[in-house]
């Protein structure tokens, strides 16, 4: 619709912004230069002008800025330069192919529906220190909107060479309020270091009875594990949640994959509940959790930098099959607190975790004992290095940003296990320490590479896809 | 005798006071011919962003470091240390006064498409996660429609309008972009409208439902419509952005390595002023165009595009206050932070901006003009830029008056008037901070001319009120061979404009005289060598060259 010319003139007088109408060449206000109408330069306009590079007007011989020292240095660095390019070529080529052929888009076209809610993608993990044996690969089918309410269904199958999982089959279904998880795993090399807070030895003098002696030797056993679990989350008020959970599990044990010291070569396992006949049990738990952890700033999303998590839980486990031990209670708590000490963020985190069971070690399957060690509980030690009826550890961790997507941490973990409350002592505490690099993307945690050691020695490198401050459900941790 | 010999030897071994540069006795070149015919369309450069970032952060960064390139002065500069007009750059506010009307009009030749509705939607925008459409207005003109990111209304569209106008006024080629408002019922679907979000996609029909679904992702302007930038399609055929190093091998007019171009290196200071952190090859566009006067002739013209992430908007949309202060992965900062465990305050931590609709994380208090970092480390001209390039650009940007900047900001049509006031104030503050920074690093004397046998010039720092310190100038004249002829002092004139006394001129045929003008003010570094010669036609003395050592 054309604007009336009078209105246009009035608007032009009132608002300079209205002068954006290029069809009108306004007279210059007082003091302003007369506007010129720009015209496109043509080749004819510049036909007699010098070429680019000939405009300087210099008549002297323009000296080179290069120096003999640079030329020598360039010669010395020639082969390192070539080697660098060659070394980076595979990675660069992969990135090039990914970009050039839109591999992510093609994957989605092949393996996902148009809405990208249903599809298939590969999975993989690598446990360091075992070479190719530490590799596990598989595939995961997901449906991210199963019934139209953003429910999430995942089915996964993976095979490994010979380390953590030889086979893994899992199903997971979650909604806003509950989660169902089921799986079957063939685990060829689970660690067993005996029961207790004992010192490590390399070669024991004789067979060790883990029920009476806490001597620790690095051994491994094989395990077939099937489990079904349901977890709920109910918000009571504010940041207070009620989290009930229930699980049924079935385990059977045997020799590990070749190349490891079998547990039965070192420990007299036939006295341990469930070792020979396996474990079939049901477990139910209630947790009350206060979780006010949050990112303080929009610019620090994805990073907890303030708040507290405090959880108390109590559960009851009972064997389903006879001869698989006695029922027992499990209870404990977890408390975390984040203190932001600077932008980035730079955060201090402190955590205290404690867990205990009521049954004795000759009544409870050894796999159900509270355990410490590994990337989640007491870093600097192997997974399940320590297990007993009571376990507790504390962590102090400092995290600071290195770049937009990269955070560094430095941590100290201290803890130990005890047989009973009468033996509670702060002597012989185990101390682990180390650092990690945490990668996130658009505020979402992606992975953490940590390097940890302990006062007892050893070096552990782990790549985790769960943040260390996440409280993994006890029913899923092992 | 021995003492005299020693003094003479010392004098001989010392660096010559007059730098080597000499200039032809001719007017400076004001335009270059880079419009020779390029009969075949140059190959299209694909912009692979992940590869580009990887090269900028790793491959090219490390390899280039091992190539030990010397620090070299910029090329593409005439005898007066200015950039001639070309297909890359056209002197505008840097060489003449621009009216507010001109700046607001900018490159826009058409009437706004907002006056020519309905628009016909031809397809979705390809590339990127943001919603966008290719539309044709009722005149048949083709535009790319781009919207604000949800959650930060008016920021991108506002920043785009402002930066587009200012870059054009500075001299860069930019597309014709219009701020528009559109309702969904003013969009009609072409019969063959299609959806294609990436090159890997096969086109599929764009339905009304799909159009509405995409529009639902955009924040409304509060009046039932949407605010957008309508970017007019550039004439010619697109061939991608320019390589950050070297030249386009198949463009014979591209003769200066891009990392040596003054107009590209100088853009650093302007990008810093505008916090235009989204500088990368993908935000430049070369067009193989037909000559307006001769349809048989073709050549490449070079544009900057996509300005929506300037003025602190990159920081808000990426939720990252580091943007503009650190590279996306800044190895130096990363290493230092790792070693020190973050036990120091970073510059960007002081960054603050009021929470006003339309305003990004754009401030002046934390701004350090010499420490600007675009998001990507891959744009080599920004790493090769030196203080002379930044000085050249600063001379341009300081010419914007507050009134001009205010008018440009008003063109962004922010809903909240506080946004206009804040952004104007911040632009002015950053402009002056830029001038204070670079005018302290290069002798800020410019606009040299010979008037009545005296040399006249402007002290830009005084002229623009950056400083008001008492100032005088040491002026020493030399002949062509560097032999000193005379020296003297002159006090600054009114408003920073100074004229020397009568000059002592060389006695050779051209009266080739070199004047060293040194500013006697504590914070100023360096001097300026002004080369004079007599015009052989008129006999008048004129400035034929400027060299800033």
Explain what this protein looks like in three dimensions.
The complex is a heterodimer of chains A (478) and B (549). Chain A has helices at residues 5-14, 68-76, 78-100, 103-111, 263-266, 474-477; strands at residues 118-126, 135-143, 152-160, 167-174, 178-192, 219-232, 234-237, 240-254, 279-291, 307-319, 328-342, 346-357, 371-372, 386-387, 390-403, 406-418, 430-441, 444-454, 459-464. Chain A has 478 residues and is mainly β. In chain A, the strands form 2 sheets. Chain A has a 17-stranded antiparallel sheet that branches. Chain A has a two-stranded antiparallel sheet with strand order 13-14. In chain A, strand 18 (444-454) and strand 19 form a beta hairpin. The longest helix of chain A is centred in the N-terminal third of the chain and has 23 residues, at 78-100. Mean pLDDT of chain A is 85; it is low at 1-29 and 473-478. Chain B has 13 helices and 18 strands. In chain B, strands 4-7-3-2-1-5-6 form a 7-stranded mixed sheet, covered by helices on one side. In chain B, helix 10 (387-397) packs across helix 12. The two termini of chain B are 35 Å apart. Chains A and B meet through helix 2, helix 3, helix 4, strand 15 and strand 16 of A and helix 2, helix 3 and helix 8 of B.
Main attributes of the structure:
heterodimer, A: about 475 residues, mainly beta, 17-stranded antiparallel sheet, two-stranded antiparallel ribbon, 6 helices, disordered C terminus, B: about 550 residues, alpha+beta, seven-stranded mixed sheet, five-stranded antiparallel sheet, 13 helices, about 25% helix, about 20% strand, disordered N terminus
**Major sheet of chain A, described briefly?**
17 strands, antiparallel
Distance between the termini of chain A: 71 Å
> What are the low-pLDDT stretches of chain B, counting only 5+ consecutive residues below 50?
1-13
Principal-axis shape of chain B equals: globular
Number of strands of chain A: 19
Q: Name the beta content range of chain A.
A: 35-45%
Cα shape of chain A:
elongated
């Amino acid at each position: 619709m054309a604007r009336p010319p009078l209105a246009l003139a009035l608007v032009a007088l009132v608002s300079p912004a209205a002068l954006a109408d290029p069809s009108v060449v306004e007279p210059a206000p007082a003091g302003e230069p007369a506007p010129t109408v720009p015209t496109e330069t043509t080749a004819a306009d510049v036909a007699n002008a010098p070429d680019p590079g000939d405009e300087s007007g210099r008549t002297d011989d323009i000296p080179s800025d290069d120096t003999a020292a640079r030329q020598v240095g360039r010669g010395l660095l020639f082969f390192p330069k070539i080697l660098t390019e060659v070394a980076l070529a595979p990675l660069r080529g992969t990135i090039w192919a990914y970009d050039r052929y839109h591999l992510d888009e093609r994957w989605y076209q092949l393996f996902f529906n148009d809405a990208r809610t249903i599809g298939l993608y590969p999975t993989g993990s690598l446990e360091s220190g075992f070479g190719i044996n530490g590799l596990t690969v598989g595939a995961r089918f997901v449906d991210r909107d199963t019934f139209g309410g953003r429910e999430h269904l995942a089915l996964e199958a993976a095979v490994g060479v010979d380390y953590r999982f030889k086979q893994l089959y899992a199903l997971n279904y979650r909604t806003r309020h509950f989660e169902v998880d089921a799986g079957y795993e063939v685990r060829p090399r689970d660690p067993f270091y005996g029961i207790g807070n004992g010192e490590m030895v390399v070669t024991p003098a004789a067979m060790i009875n883990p029920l009476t002696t806490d001597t620790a030797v690095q051994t491994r056993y094989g395990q077939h594990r099937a489990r079904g679990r349901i977890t709920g989350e109910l918000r009571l008020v504010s940041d207070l949640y009620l989290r009930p959970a229930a699980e049924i599990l079935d385990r059977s044990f045997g020799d590990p994959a070749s190349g490891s010291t079998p547990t039965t070569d070192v420990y007299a396992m036939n006295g341990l509940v469930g070792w020979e006949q396996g474990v079939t049990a049901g477990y139910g738990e209630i947790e009350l959790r206060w979780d006010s952890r949050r990112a303080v700033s929009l610019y620090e999303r994805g990073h907890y930098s303030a708040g507290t998590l405090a959880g108390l839980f109590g559960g009851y486990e009972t064997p389903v099959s006879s001869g698989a031990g006695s029922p027992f209670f499990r209870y404990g708590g977890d408390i975390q607190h984040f203190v932001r000490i600077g932008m980035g963020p730079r955060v201090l985190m402190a955590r205290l975790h404690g867990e205990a069971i009521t049954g004795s070690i000759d009544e409870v399957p050894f796999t159900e004992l509270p355990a410490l060690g590994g990337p989640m509980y007491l870093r600097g030690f192997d997974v399940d290095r320590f297990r007993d009826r009571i376990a507790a550890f504390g962590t102090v961790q400092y995290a600071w940003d290195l770049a937009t997507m990269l955070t560094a941490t430095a941590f100290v973990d201290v803890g130990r296990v005890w047989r009973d409350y009468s033996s509670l002592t702060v002597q012989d505490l185990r101390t682990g320490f180390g650092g990690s690099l945490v990668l996130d993307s658009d505020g979402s945690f992606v992975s953490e590479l940590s390097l940890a050691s302990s006062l007892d020695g050893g070096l552990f490198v782990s790549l985790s896809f769960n943040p260390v401050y996440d409280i993994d459900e006890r029913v899923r941790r092992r | 005798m021995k003492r005299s010999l020693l003094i003479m030897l010392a004098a001989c071994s010392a660096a010559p006071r007059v730098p080597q540069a000499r200039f032809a006795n001719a007017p400076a070149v004001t335009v270059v011919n880079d419009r020779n015919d390029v009969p075949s369309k140059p190959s299209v450069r694909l912009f692979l962003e992940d590869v580009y970032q990887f090269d900028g952060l790793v491959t090219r960064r490390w390899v280039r470091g091992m190539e030990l390139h010397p620090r070299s002065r910029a090329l593409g500069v005439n005898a007066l240390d200015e950039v001639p007009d070309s297909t890359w750059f056209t002197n505008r506010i840097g060489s003449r006064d621009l009216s507010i009307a001109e700046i607001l009009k900018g490159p826009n030749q058409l009437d706004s498409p907002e006056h020519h509705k309905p628009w016909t939607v031809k397809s979705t925008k390809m590339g990127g996660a943001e919603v966008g459409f290719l539309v044709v207005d009722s005149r048949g003109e083709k535009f790319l429609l781009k919207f604000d990111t949800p959650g930060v209304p008016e920021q991108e569209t506002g920043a785009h309008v402002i930066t587009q106008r200012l870059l054009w006024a500075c001299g860069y080629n930019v597309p014709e972009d219009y701020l528009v408002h559109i309702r969904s019922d003013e969009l009609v679907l072409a019969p063959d409208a299609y959806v294609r979000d990436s090159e890997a996609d096969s086109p599929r029909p764009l339905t009304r439902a799909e159009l509405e679904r995409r529009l639902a992702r955009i924040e409304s302007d509060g009046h039932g419509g949407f605010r957008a930038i309508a970017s007019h399609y550039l004439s010619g055929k697109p061939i991608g952005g320019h390589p950050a190093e070297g030249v386009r091998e198949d463009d014979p007019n591209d003769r200066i390595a891009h990392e040596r171009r003054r107009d590209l290196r100088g853009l650093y200071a302007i990008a810093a002023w505008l916090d235009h952190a989204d500088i990368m090859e993908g935000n430049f566009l070369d067009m193989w165009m037909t000559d307006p006067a001769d349809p048989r002739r073709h050549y490449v013209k070079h544009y900057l595009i996509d300005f929506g992430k300037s003025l602190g908007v990159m920081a808000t949309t990426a939720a990252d206050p580091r943007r503009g202060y650190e590279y996306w992965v800044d190895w130096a900062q990363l290493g230092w932070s790792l070693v020190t465990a973050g036990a120091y305050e970073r510059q960007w931590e002081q960054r603050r901006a009021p929470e006003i609709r339309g305003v990004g994380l754009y401030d002046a208090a934390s701004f350090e003009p010499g420490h600007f970092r675009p998001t990507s480390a891959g744009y080599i001209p920004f790493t090769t830029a030196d203080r002379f390039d930044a000085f050249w650009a600063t001379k341009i940007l300081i010419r914007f008056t507050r009134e001009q900047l205010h008018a440009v900001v008003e063109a962004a049509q922010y809903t909240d008037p506080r946004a206009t006031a804040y952004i104007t104030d911040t632009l002015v503050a950053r402009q002056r901070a830029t001038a204070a920074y670079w005018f302290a690093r290069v002798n800020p004397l410019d606009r040299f001319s010979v008037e009545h046998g005296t040399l006249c010039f402007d002290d830009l720092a005084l002229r623009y009120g950056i400083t008001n310190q008492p100032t005088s100038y040491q002026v020493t004249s030399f002949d062509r061979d560097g032999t000193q002829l005379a020296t003297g002092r002159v006090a600054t004139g009114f408003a920073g404009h100074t004229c020397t006394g009568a000059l002592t001129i060389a006695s050779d045929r051209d009266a080739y005289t070199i004047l060293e003008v040194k500013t006697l003010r504590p914070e100023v570094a360096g001097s300026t060598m002004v080369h004079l010669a007599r015009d052989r036609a008129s006999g008048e003395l004129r400035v034929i060259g400027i060299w800033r050592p």
